[in-house]
Amino acid sequence: MTLDSLDRAACAAMDAADPLAPLRDRFDIPTGMIYLDGNSLGAMPKGAAARAHDVVTREWGADLIKSWNSAGWFDLPVRLGDKLAPLIGAGDGEVIVCDSTSQNLFKVLSAAVALRPHRKVLILEGSNFPTNNYIAQGVAAATGGRVEVRLCEKDEIADAIDEDTIAVAITHVHYKTGHIHDMAAITARAQAAGALAIWDLCHSAGAMPVDLGGAGVDFAVGCTYKYLNGGPGSPAFLFAAKRHQGHALQPVTGWWGHAAPFAFEPGYRPQRDIRQFLIGTQPILSMALVEVGLDIHRAADMTAIRAKSMALTDLFIRLVEERCAGHGFTLASPREAAARGSQVSFAHPDGYPIMRALIAAGVIGDFRAPDTVRFGFTPLYVGYVDVWDAVDRLVTIMDEGIWKRPEHQIRDAVT
Amino acid sequence: MTLDSLDRAACAAMDAADPLAPLRDRFDIPTGMIYLDGNSLGAMPKGAAARAHDVVTREWGADLIKSWNSAGWFDLPVRLGDKLAPLIGAGDGEVIVCDSTSQNLFKVLSAAVALRPHRKVLILEGSNFPTNNYIAQGVAAATGGRVEVRLCEKDEIADAIDEDTIAVAITHVHYKTGHIHDMAAITARAQAAGALAIWDLCHSAGAMPVDLGGAGVDFAVGCTYKYLNGGPGSPAFLFAAKRHQGHALQPVTGWWGHAAPFAFEPGYRPQRDIRQFLIGTQPILSMALVEVGLDIHRAADMTAIRAKSMALTDLFIRLVEERCAGHGFTLASPREAAARGSQVSFAHPDGYPIMRALIAAGVIGDFRAPDTVRFGFTPLYVGYVDVWDAVDRLVTIMDEGIWKRPEHQIRDAVT
Asked: Which positions are annotated as binding pyridoxal 5'-phosphate (chains A, B) (predicted)?
């Protein structure tokens, strides 16, 4: 299609032909809003409010402590993990939902250090979302100098792996650019050197097929509040390959990770399965809503999700580059769809006021310092007309200089 | 009063004179149920369902990522901590609400180990709720043998403290017996020896006056889902005395504990205040409900709560001992109210089927192996007639041998 033939009607036709389009009705998106920030916080499934009401009034209010058994509260981490597992190529009993991504990374990095006692280097990507690197620094510091963290840029990672490497711990899809790392290749390279491969799936779980099992990954972590639509700060997940369970131990040895949590034994004795990565009591209400998001995913085909994700992001890049030509946007994401997650970033020296003006116009993306405007495209609820309309509003903002208005210069937002 | 004069009408008169009685209407207790298990999971405040609905539909559903700022999600840990602080004798900026009790204990024990690098012993109570001891074992193991855990029984703690002691980490009110430790005396004894005093307030926060500041306590942790009524698995709290902030560092160095979390600096640089004890993104929905429970407490006087708690538990002990005399119950809690938390335990060789029969009769307490029936009395919603009626049902169960029925012998409950 040329730009002439690619108009809003053409986008509407694409929506009409979209096999995932019916799933949009499972979400409540505010009227008039084009939500392109599902890579930060996923939208609310329509079932969330009813589920929250049921957990609060029936499970908690009426059934009280009985619900630990009758409502399955104790089993939620494992049950939700098993439900999430097919989305990331994991098997039953290999995934658990609990705690935050940072905490789960602490557990698996600590486990990796213990599994490779004669090695000393953790490799991470320097430009990664910083908490991963901070957590690795904390794990290294706790060894009193035995372990060090080496931060590499993306093209240096493979060559940095050697016989001193404990593990590579890489975020599969880069939070800022959307670049996809080659999970299979880096995992194979790490394991060939005797190192472990740890993947952070925050920006890929639910947005594209992930095959932890096929790649032979050792450990993984990720969040449930982005593409999995679990709600603000919903508990994260942790994957440990079966072969490590019972051998890989983590240091935060709370009673939920004990082999017999209700035997009240004096000494800690780890579960020999995925539950060893649990620590303490989970926030049940936040936990329960994870299931509402996962159930929508189970109604969707991941191949269709990925195909639509690539089409949406291709369309957005094309429309911005064509219709905003001359306005100073530079693509900051991989141009090739196969190398790109479900997000698109553009660099622009005035990115901050431009994003403020977009948000005021009902197009919700976000800004990442110093100059990146970032847009996420969740195939479950973003359509082709949304992309058209978002760019349309951007064209108006740029053509009419709306972003130069004083109210868009205020620097107060932190997300 | 003699037993003859102490009848249900006398209990009703006590309820009528109870200054806390109006607060019961702030809770939804199922009709016909006498809930004596608020020391395991607090009852549901009536405001909880509306608050959950608002967080889900408005803050998440309508305002989406804007709520990190506009709804104050980022500030919740500190704001809730400041709201909780007066209940435990802490000052502004000394308490934070986040994560689980086990995780928070890991942080403060790790901080204590780092603050006392030339000492080697962590002292805990052996008969404590086991997760505390497990966590301490994990912290010790992570030092590679430098640190060891010494488990004492309650009368041995003071004498065990010496110049090798890093910290004593004691649960203020024992989960099973309700015995109250002398916080001021043990803290003073520990500090006189150069050790740190860490207190677990799971069974005291909200149930009685606690004066961390007056006792000069170093660190404390506790949960919000028992007497504070925050909901199942609601996030826990952590107290660090101001003098330790900026010096005491914990090893799980996630971005929420960074001095500038949104500067995305390559290296971890700790916050120099209570926020250094944060790790990652919090479960906002579970977190938000903590405030509903705290707001009820702010309408109550802690001296009145404690006075009623002692009266309720005294009454329960007296009625059980008098009306169930000869049925084999032995008091397993301190007889003196001043030495007892807001709970009463009795030992009975058939405690398990007796508790099952009680639960079937609508009196919810719990059982702790091998032989303890445990009853919690939350002064905010338990009244004197509740105590009378609970014992009345127990009398029937014992006099008529109802607990011997086959359905009460089944061992399936875990709480």
From this structure: 101-102, 171, 200, 203, 225, 255, 281
Task: Give the domain A8-31+301-408 fold.
Answer: Aspartate Aminotransferase, domain 1 (3.90.1150)
What is the C-alpha separation between A224 and A290, in angstroms, rounded? 7
Cβ-Cβ contacts under 8 Å between A and B: the total is 286
A256 is in an annotated binding site: no
For A154-196, the pLDDT digits (tens) are 999 999 999 999 999 999 999 999 999 999 999 999 999 999 9
pLDDT score at B415:
44
Q: What is the pLDDT of residue B414?
A: 43
**CB–CB contact B255 A138 (8 Å):** no
Give catalytic residues of A, as residue numbers.
129, 200, 225-226, 374
Alpha-carbon distance A84 to A87, whole Å? 6
Q: Which residue of B has its CA nearest to A175?
A: B264
The structural domains of chain A, with segments of one domain joined by +, span 8-31+301-408, 50-298
pLDDT, position B282:
97
B8-52, pLDDT tens digit by residue?
999 999 999 999 999 999 999 999 999 999 999 999 999 999 999
- Under 8 Å CB-to-CB from A173, ≥6 apart: which residues? A179, A180, A181, A202, A203, A204, A207, A208, A341, A342, A343
> Residue A61: how many CB atoms within 10 A of its CB?
23
Question: Does B287 touch chain A if contact means CB atoms closer than 8 Å?
Answer: yes
Partner residue opposite B131 with nearest CB, options A101, A251, A254: A254
Q: How far is CA B148 from the centre of its chain?
A: 26
